Amino acid sequence: MNCNMMYRKFFACVGVFLYFSFVSMGGVLTSYAEDMPQGDILIIYSDNAGEDTVAAVNDLVELLTYQSFKISYGPASFGMQYMDRFSYIICYDLDQSPAGFTERLKQYENSGITAGRTESPHILFTGNEYFKYYLDHTKRSDQYELLNSTVGQLKYSFDGLDNKTGLVRESCFVFLKNSTYHSGMLTVNDKRGYFCAGNGRLTHIPAADITNQLIRAAMIKEVSQWKWPFNGSPHVYAQYILIDRVYPYEDPEKLLKTVNLLIERKTPFVISVMPMYVNGDYPSMVHFCEVLRFAQAGKGAVIINAPINQMNRLDKDVMLDYLNRAITIYNKQGVYPLALEVPRNWMFQKDTIEIMSHFKTIFTSSETDPYLKPENRNTNEVYKDGHQWVGTSIPIDDTKISYVSAYSTSLPISLQEDYEEIERKVKACRDSFVPFKSLWDMEHGYWLDKQLMTYKNGDLILNDKKMDIKFTPSVYPDRYNYRRNMLQRFSRDLTSQSRRLVIAVGLTSVLFLLLILWARYRNRKNYFFHD
To answer: Membrane-spanning residues where (predicted)?
Structure first.
């Protein structure tokens, strides 16, 4: 009897456990459903994908976000449930698929326009192994050619004239025998294939290594063309010369020389300034802002870099407070930042997305914020804020200029570089086929605590007051009061006294050495030449 009661209790506990397990699993599935709303593109990757593949997918999501696409992404086992919500699906370097996925993808390919989408299905495969498996499964084994080699040479032209070349590594290469569209040349074992080709609803890119800069640039160009619903080429976006991460204590004369170079050559440019939170009226800061006002008057735009994050747990309110202080200091000096520059991984964190939502125009740098912990996401939530994006150019060669016109890009220039190198980069940009554009030709805006800025049709309005960006020279006092406290004055006096002491000791040492040499000379003369 006691034994039966014990077993009943055991099975009851197991039943309760399984019930709550299924309930929680249902909650997980529901959350994934909520995380995969209807969008522009769905990216599917392997269920067992490693960190490198997930990082590559995030890179692709970032580049597509610059083009204002609404992206959802996730492993194949979940993505297969939501295919009908999307007209464009990317199967990114799949090496295996869950049960039923391939048949589900086949059904999607053969389906028409449904209530969940407005266009017929489009499927883009990157990589080769699963693409081969899919063609075999759908009885199209005669439509491709398999090359069992691991290395190929890629030639790709971004402007229709010059080819960029590089090596490509894959486990094998598959090429469609017939295609209605092809671009680029991928040579494997003296066999000429393509970089991208399409036939019907299927499009294929054999090279999937997006860490290769040439593949990265070519892939984003081809995805833009694949997503373009009209005949011809997609919109051409501009590039910007960006004098990046400029500090007030850097050489203002070199900054002025660079600004004059760009103004004389009638080249639009952007200056990204670092935030300052105190001492906005110091003479060095006034002189720095004077150069910035001169740049503004010469149609050079100023943007502000996000405060450097040094918090293990980022506090968005603190960051916004520091941004407000920094922009206020620049505004008081007649400098009006139009946009915010952030590390590229700010696009994937809830709090940083909230910070960026205060600005209309966002520049991203090639740097990452090391203190930000990655969050599991299945959609580019930053899309909803409707930013104007400017991403860093993809450096294919040593000029580091942009060869991609699928989204707006910036070419960073550092004042730490030699002036000759800066001239070389400016010339390379001017000779590029990607056009320039001035930030003053776009609309901008931001809102912070007690600050609201809008720029439209040439009028910059700050807190309901129109600002004048004409250049006016600064007036410097004959003697500036630094308002130092007792400790600062003592430190300054001690530094001054120490400098005087070092000079006095040095002069005394030199005099003492001269006296020793003179005495030695006299002694030698008296000893060796005495009559």
So the answer is: 501-519
